[in-house]
Write a structure and sequence with these properties.
Elements (H helix, E strand, L loop, with lengths): L2 E5 L10 H10 L4 E4 L10 H9 L7 E5 L1 H9 L7 E5 L17 H13 L1 H13 L5 H7 L7 H13 L3 H6 L4 E6 L9 H8 L4 E5 L5 H4 L1 H18 L1
Parallel strand pairs: 1-2, 1-3, 3-4, 4-5, 5-6
Helix pairs in contact: 1-11, 4-5, 4-7, 5-6
């Protein structure tokens, strides 16, 4: 049985993955497909969040994660056996490190954290605009990116995890099939990280699509086709 689990990004409703889920279901009619909302992050504790997610996963799933969901999907490979991992618009480190400059500047991220604490609603609207920046019709797309209902404290805890996560060593050691899809006009995950990701793990496949950080909403059919091809190739190789 093919189990496909989709994980959303920070601040955006899991419903935004529905178009991609439907496109994948068309390509795998017999697959069990699940959209798994992220935890509400009652504390900035990675282990707690991973345990909550793991308890809801089927056996040996394909994990497909968007942005923070992709970073958590990689972490989950250490918790249970998985068939493979696909990330969309996801970086090894979301914020810059001295040895990983291909990410969001720490000052910009700090301003975002302050905005969540002071004005969560307006900050999430601004985040939606950033997600859609680079799309053909960014404002229309931003309106479709429904916010995830959470308190300012929960949003802040989620951002703390996003800042803490560093998947570089994990990517270098990961043995399961992995596909990392990046967007060429992404305003949150610089396309420049693609070559650095490839250097981390020569086993990974990296693909780029024309679009914004909200690629999952822009091109669900094209994404599903690329993912289906990768999943079938990985299954044939076993």
């Amino acid at each position: 049985m093919l189990n496909l689990v989709l994980l959303p990004g920070w601040g955006i409703s899991a419903d935004c993955l529905q178009p991609l889920a439907e496109a994948l279901q068309q390509r795998f009619p017999k697959a069990q497909l699940q959209i798994l909302p992220l935890p509400r992050f009652t504390q900035p504790n990675l282990a707690h969040a991973l345990t909550e997610l793991q308890e809801q996963l089927p056996s040996t799933p394909w994990l497909i994660g968007w942005s923070l969901g992709g970073m958590l999907a990689l972490q989950l490979t250490q918790q249970l056996p998985v068939a493979g991992v696909i990330t969309i618009a996801s970086n090894a480190c979301f914020t810059q490190r001295p040895d990983w400059p291909w990410a969001m500047a720490q000052e910009d991220f700090a301003a975002f954290q302050q905005g969540c604490a002071a004005q969560l609603t307006s900050t999430l609207k601004r985040f939606s605009l950033l997600c859609s920046q680079g799309a053909d019709n960014p404002r229309q797309l931003a309106k479709q990116l429904l916010p995830f209902k959470q308190t300012p404290e929960q949003a802040s805890h989620g951002l703390s995890l996003l800042q803490q996560l560093d998947n570089r060593q994990l990517l270098a050691q990961l043995a399961v099939p992995q596909l990392h899809i990046l967007a060429q006009q992404d305003a949150l995950v610089p396309l420049a990280c693609s070559s650095a990701l490839q250097q981390l793990t020569h086993q990974a496949h990296i693909a780029t699509f024309n679009g914004s950080h909200a690629l999952v909403m822009e091109q669900p059919a094209a994404l599903a086709t690329r993912m289906a091809h990768f999943i079938r190739e990985a299954d044939d190789a076993e």
